Amino acid sequence: MLILTCPYCGVKAEETELQPGGEAHLKRVGPAGSDDEFEDYMFARKNAKGVHFERWRHAYGCGKWFLAARDTATLQVYGTYSAQTPHPPARIVAAIRDVHPDWQPDWTETAGADAE
Amino acid sequence: MSHTPPFRLARGGRLIDRAFQVPFRFDGRHLRGLQGDSLASALLANGQMLMGRSFKYHRPRGPIASGAEEPNALFGLGQGGRFEPNQRATTTALLPGMMLRSQNCWPSLDADIGAVNSWLSPIFPAGFYYKTFIHPRPFWKHVFEPIIRHSAGLGRAPTDPDPDRYEQAYAHVDTVVVGGGIAGLLAAQRAADQGGSVLVLEQTAIWGGRTPVDHPGGQARIDDLLADLRGRGNVTLRRNTMATGLYDHGYLLAREALADHDPNQGIPRQRLWRIRAGHVVTATGALERPLAFACNDVPGVMLASAVRDMIVDYGVAPGQRVVVVTNNDDAYRTALIAADAGLEVSVIDARRTADGDLPQAARARNIPVLMNTGIAKVKGGRHVEGVVLCDAEGEGKATGGIDCDVVAMSGGWSPVVHLWSHCGGKLTWDEPQAMFRPNPERPPLGADGQGNVSATGAANGDLRCAGDLERAEQPTMPVWCMPRNAPYKLRSKMWLDFQNDVKVSDVELAAREGYASVEHTKRYTTLGMATDQGKVSNINGLAVLSKALNQPIPQTGTTTFRPPYTPLTLATIAADARGEAFQPLRKTPMHDWHARNGASWEPVGHWRRPYCYPKGGEDRHAAVNREILAVRRGVGTLDASTLGKILVKGPDAGRFLDMMYTNMMSTLPVGKCRYGLMCSENGFLMDDGVVVRLTEDSWLCHTTTGGADRIHGHMEDWLQCEWWDWQVYTANLTEQYAQIAIAGPKAREVLERLPGSIDLSQDALPFMTWAEGDIAGIPARVYRISFSGELSYEIAVPTSRGLELWERLHEAGRDLGITPYGTEAMHVMRAEKGFIMIGDETDGTIIPQDLGLGWAISKKKTDYLGKRAQSRSHMKDRSRWQLVGLESLDGRVIPDGAYAVDEGVNPNGQRKTQGRVTSSYHSPTLDRPIAMALVRHGTERMGQVIEFPMPSGEVLKGRICDPVFYDKEGARLNG
């Protein structure tokens, strides 16, 4: 069972204290979106073997949703961070690159984007 | 018969106390063992070598091992609720009065009818159940399956509840060392030197592992280490504790036996340790491998280590004349110890030479040693009578023979890599030692990406005893089949998996039939699938498979090692979470009143709600009918406290609720109520309830009883993760308010009898409005909402005042016949009115449009959760099933869930369907059955009759009608 640190209350929480929420950083597609865009948003998941960003709620703790960057193959946790950010912050990217120097994010990194 | 007493040696036995005899019973026979005996040693001491029957062929079997890997000597232990099947004789300590029952045999272990399977073995090869039982087809259901079900499974499950207590405990430790042998104790010492906390777990009651048996100075060395560790404040030593599984991020499960098979101690029987380890050291040792020679399953053929354990630990001789057969030096220890015990010994060694310390010591003791020799065949049926010898490299031509009553075999050792492998640790093939051992480059990783497990000692492939007791041993020579070029006749008698009767020929057959993957071969042959999970058979099996596939062993690989290492009883996993402690029970403030008034309960989520209140010998059906009529004709009360109540407040609360609900909630005026629908982003209806506008910036959202926590979490998800810049707070106030529905034509009259500050008149408080004030001196909110179709008020008061109000209402309405009603009356009344119920009319695939609830979907809003999904083609498909009412044609209730059939059949040959019943009741109000159903094109088919075939063969018919059965115009709402 995983241990993830809740970035809000600081508790090192065991998986049984947490509610899983699936893939993080999905961009909501509303009524204006096409069928294909909506299908992608609703159903298409990366299901990555390796680096993965996911949503967790500290359900039996402070109640906050947070995000975790984790390696699904090795179980390494690169860090947890606020749910209120469109992309993983720079320190998470750095932690991933410590292990996978060639890892490339699928969003455009901008200077000063780390708004934690 | 060559098997003769005495079996208990005159001397020796480091674990037994000869001063204390221990009586026990075996299949009804009264026997005696000694204090310190295992069940296996006690039975062997009584000359009982036959301890079980194999699973498939019912072959007679004796014990082959002395530890947890034992596949044969399994018994049913105890009686009644304490009966336990499949208890290993080799690891279960003998206690006075124990009752052992043999398994997998009938009528008795000695005369087992099932042994006929052994003669029929040519029709039971590998994969026989995929081949033998295919034809003729009807035979499967009527002949094969009943027989297989009867004979399947080893042992019998107990039928009575387990009367013992089990508990769980938690530990957080820097280093956990699994294994209390010399490697583990040395590792514990090293870890303790670093200053962190250290926990050492030993599966047996005895510290030291193999070292005290295998080395002259072993016990003294172990004692020194124990004395040192016991003197350290940061070390905890825990015996009788089996580490069964290692999971993510250092989570280790271990089962501690506290009072196993000894209920009189008054303490929990077992304790499950849930350990978080910073680092785990596996010092789990190694398991000896059998050799594959013909008839290696005859009782009396044992692992060499087990034979010497019996002699050294228990002073028991499994026989008087021992043949040791080996491919390594270690087995010579057995020869030397057997000779020391006064037994007749000879050694058969498959290697060309053996000049190490141990073989030389054996020769010096004048023990006959035959090199380059193998066993062609074991003689004897129910017990070893001798061996036929052959050239180890040949085809099995007899070169001689030895009469004996025990064969001590050793095919080398396999490190116990289970814990290492459970959580992702990889293995490497060690060619010189012919074993898989942990690959130190690829350990399981912790959260920080660093290895969090290390292996040491024999578990790491270091078979020399650790520390200063090392001895030089010559390399083993892999022997996967003895003799090397044995013909089929011999290979078909060479057992690999003893419990499941898998032989060398079966694995070869699987390879011939195309099973190239070791995982597939395992499942096809059942190799390693028995209760011992292949601890003794695994490596031999995949070596045979590799040879058959003509590929190196590492290319074949191993099957997956999964927890638990040894079986874990469900009672230990459940521990105290049984009975009333299984899960919390939520009670409303009126719970005890309901109980006093005879409530028949219904579980709803974690709540218990009154289903109805049977009176004076009524059954539940009669009680429900009486309650409904009491409400329709007079007045009744429902405890609605379990309804979810979520406060949503803030400048953006209206905007937020417009996204949560399909309706427009932002325009709801203060003082009014609105029925709302909530959909998932996928468009499906997930909850419903009345929303109340409390103030300019706050709304109270009612949810279904079971939905409160889920819906609150759903709201928080969108607020925290999507619209985090919106200024909204939510609070789940479900338990802060008691809520009572008072319904019926006389509801207002009863309520007005209580003193209060709220004008309850139709003009002041019309339908779908609410007011605040006090009733009977209790601060209250009154909502004019109705789920029954009657004049109805729902009154919310502080939880602590709920019972008080309930009792005041019942006093006030006594002369009017005020009646408490339960959830079933509520269900029937809502169905009479055609109101939907989440979970009845919905099942996670239903959208509001299916239920005729289009009126509750705002056309003005540009967005709400589910809006985009509801515009997808399948959601707009006009052939979706639609909600309608159903009238039964013959007065019988059409069962809930029944399917309406259509013309034609689907590709599976089943009748096509065109609808199903979602709610169905007998309506006491109308005195006839009513039902709601989802039917294709339902709303366009009023008056048509559809058919519901029953399992009995008869067909019920229903006429499609409007789902509102009672008071269509809604006149009763206003009393």
TrEMBL record, chain A:
GO terms for biological process: tetrahydrofolate metabolic process. One of its GO terms (molecular function) is sarcosine oxidase activity. It holds the Pfam family SoxD. It comes from the Bacteria. This is Sarcosine oxidase subunit delta. It comes from Paracoccus homiensis.
TrEMBL record, chain B:
The keyword Oxidoreductase applies. Residues 907-922 have a biased composition (Polar residues). Residues 882-967 form the Aminomethyltransferase C-terminal domain. GO terms for molecular function: sarcosine oxidase activity. It comes from Paracoccus homiensis. Residues 901-922 are annotated as: Disordered. The lineage of its organism: Bacteria, Pseudomonadati, Pseudomonadota, Alphaproteobacteria, Rhodobacterales. It holds the Pfam family GCV_T. Residues 590-861 form the GCVT N-terminal domain. Keywords: Oxidoreductase. SUPFAM superfamilies: Aminomethyltransferase beta-barrel domain, FAD/NAD(P)-binding domain, Folate-binding domain. Residues 174-420 form the FAD/NAD(P)-binding domain. One of its GO terms (biological process) is tetrahydrofolate metabolic process. Belongs to the GcvT family. Residues 492-576 form the SoxA A3 domain. This is Sarcosine oxidase subunit alpha.
